[in-house]
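Hey, I'm writing a tutorial for new members on how sequence and structure tokens pair up, and I'd like a real worked example in the thread rather than a made-up one. If someone can provide the structure for the chain below, I'll link this post from the tutorial.
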Amino acid sequence: MPRRTEKANEEERDTIVLSESNKGVEDEVTCLNRMLGAVMRYISDDEIVEIDIEFLLETTKGLRKWWDEYREKDRKRVEEDIKKSLSGLSLEELEKIREQIQEKGKD
């Protein structure tokens, strides 16, 4: 019986890891589809007059966790965008921003 080469063993391990990561993506897509379906059912209910976001976050399994993670990622993206744009600002503009930040810190 011929022995498997190290390269063949590596390719098999890579295939297993890839299919496991695909399963993770499929699980995430399934979860997102379920949450989206729950939200759409709620907002399309003709008896609902006012949308209660807190109710959705409380009653849709996993939605609050997803929303918190999404907001944190978005916060980091905004921070990075601001950092990148700072170098193009004048000294006066930077000083105004610093003053706004200091005022906000006093609140």
